[in-house]
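Record 1 of the preview.
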Amino acid sequence: MTTPNELRALQEVIWNGSLPLEIRLSPSESRNYDQTDPYLVHYPRLSYLPFLLPRLHAFFTASLITPDVSPSDAWFSFEGVPLKWHYPVGLLYDLFSGRNPSQAAGRKPLSDDDPGEAPKPWTLIVHFSDWPDEQLVKLDAEGKVLHDAFINSVKEADFLRNGTAKGIMSLSKDDSTRLWDAVLHHQLFAFAAVSQKLLYAQAAPLRHVPLKVYLPASPSASQPTAGHLRVVQSLVTPCVPNTREPQTLGSALHGLLPSLFPSRRTPILAKPVLHGAVVPMGALLEELLRVGAYLDGWVHLGVVMMG
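->
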């Protein structure tokens, strides 16, 4: 059992996690083709790529063939795959970068090439035209689409935790504004002040853990370029069904995906990854939710195949 001080320390480590990004303008949209300087930034793992769009538009305006496009027209890709803008950037990195996750909690991420070097930037392409309508919902200039997608995800997580969405629905207008501003500006204490009201709104036992598991999947005719992901979601209780035994990550994954996780204790075919680290199968699921949930209240868990 993790102590409250250890939980708070882990929360701060997760909140402060960041990734080096190298964002390049699509050569077909640049006056200089592939010679445009990239935009370099250390970006919070928990945040969302669209928050960068105003800065990227200002940075690349002089190089754009069509400079009068709106920042909200922009979208990101990695190796030709459009990146879902409503996924946190840390989740996108864990799913698509192909780099090995850390094996030890608290270890600083290092490069795959040399354990003594800082991690190499993750290179993304930003496009300001040819929006991929079949893969991505269009953003709007006011940011309402992104805001609504985030709030709807928070509502869904709130409902799963408590059996009702009264927590998020009963927030005052000021608290709702503070919550979104804290997400937008990545402010830990402002975010925690509001999120705690959601986590413990009814002071009732946790009903379900908001858990999504992201699996690598083969492309299909219906999703030929969707990033080849399968998202598994089910009702996961904090205790093993029909017992009072606390649910571990291993028992939950065995129940959801027994063919991938035949053992409740040991990863054999695949490893669960959260915030860039392999998560022990014995981790208590409720603690994982309290400490490791993303800003929308979900535990977004990647799966990396072994061997």
